[in-house]
Write a structure and sequence with these properties.
This protein has 309 residues and is of the alpha+beta class. The chain folds into three domains: 2-165, no CATH class; 170-260, no CATH class; 269-308, no CATH class. Helix content is 47%, strand content 10%. It is built from ten helices and nine strands. It has helices at 2-11, 15-32, 38-50, 66-95, 104-120, 130-141, 145-163, 180-183, 257-260, 291-308; strands at 169-170, 175-176, 188-190, 196-200, 206-209, 211-214, 221-225, 244-246, 252-254. The chain has a four-stranded mixed β-sheet with strand order 3-6-7-9, with no helix packed on it. Helix 3 (38-50) packs parallel to helix 5 (104-120) and helix 4 packs across helix 7. It is elongated, with a radius of gyration of 26 Å. The N and C termini lie far apart (82 Å).
Length: 309
């Protein structure tokens, strides 16, 4: 009954809600590496197994239309993340030497999906993401199960070491990192318990952000997004940037350091006169509000333009 409830809950979710759910599972698995609760790990395995879609042929025909192609790519990426999360959870379950009978329903689900595919096709190697399905098949049919899971867990550890050398936006781990310098700002907080999914407004690439900007006056928290946007989508079209936006429609704030750095006067440091902000003129006013500085700039422009005319 519990597993059927998870299946029904998954089918009743929309595409956006499924993306948020999958990202939450990936984050929850990271916390379970240090949490020794078998009940939570078992629930995660059952939920991921309930969300699995049947295998499909790798040479399936492409959909017509840009919207259909994007939708298909989103479903494929989501299913790949589900399979990876499930394999990592199974590897963690096996490493703790827990009872396999507790997750027998998940094994039967995987076995049923693979058997139906192999009845119509020769081998699971013909399926898309065959490497992941091959490891799931080894778990379901007991074919060198421990070896396959240990190999996948070892490869996962190797990937983590590579991720530490990569820049702030790491699309492979689907996590957003504002950078070491911004992390040290007093207005920036890390809240792992409040993850938010942010999505590119062009290609629908998703990241998970746990970093928030907390306003020093109102104490209002706003999720941070990369100010440079999605680098892969830059320049399409006319060199414009593709910004990330929260999936749930909440407010966001770009990680521009000038807008995040506040002084002891609860004011942006760049426009704080007592702190000598960079945008403060010699008359101790913001440059765009000082009548004397604006008049001086206009006179300079009038002198320069005739000289080059």
């Amino acid at each position: 009954m519990e597993f059927q409830r998870y299946v029904s809950q998954w089918h009743n979710l929309s595409m956006e809600e499924r993306g948020v759910k999958v990202s939450t599972w990936a984050l929850r698995l990271k916390t379970l590496r240090t949490d020794a609760s078998p009940k939570r790990l078992r629930r995660l395995i059952l939920q991921a197994a309930a969300a699995l879609s049947p295998p499909r042929l790798a040479a399936a025909g492409e959909s017509d239309g840009t919207g259909a192609v994007r939708e298909e790519h989103r479903v494929t990426d989501s299913q790949q993340t589900i399979k990876k999360t499930l394999l990592r959870a199974l590897a963690l379950w096996s490493s703790r030497a827990l009872e396999d009978s507790e997750i027998e329903i998940a094994r039967l689900r995987i076995e049923h999906l693979i058997r139906k595919f192999e009845e119509c096709h020769a081998n699971i190697d013909c399926a898309a993401s065959c490497n992941l399905w091959r490891r799931l098949r080894a778990f379901a049919f007991g074919e060198q199960r421990d070896t396959q899971l240990q190999v996948y867990a070892a490869s996962d550890v190797g990937k983590k070491k590579m991720h530490q050398r990569r820049p702030a936006i790491r699309s492979d781990t689907r996590t957003y990192d504002p950078g070491e310098h911004r992390m040290k700002l007093p207005t920036v907080e890390h809240r792992p318990s409040e993850p938010k999914v942010i999505r590119c407004d062009r290609c629908y690439h998703e990241l998970v952000s746990c970093w928030y900007f907390v306003h020093p006056r109102t104490s209002r928290a706003t999720v941070l997004v990369p100010s440079k946007g999605h680098i892969s989508c830059k320049g399409e079209p006319s060199g414009s940037r593709a910004f990330f936006k929260p999936v749930d429609g909440s407010n966001s704030k770009c990680d521009n350091e000038l807008s995040l750095d506040y002084c002891v006067h609860n004011c942006r440091r760049a426009v704080c006169a007592p702190c000598g902000g960079s945008n403060i003129c010699r008359h101790r006013k913001p440059k765009w509000r000082c009548a004397i500085c604006k008049l001086t700039i206009r006179k300079r422009v009038k002198k320069v333009i005739p000289a080059h005319a």
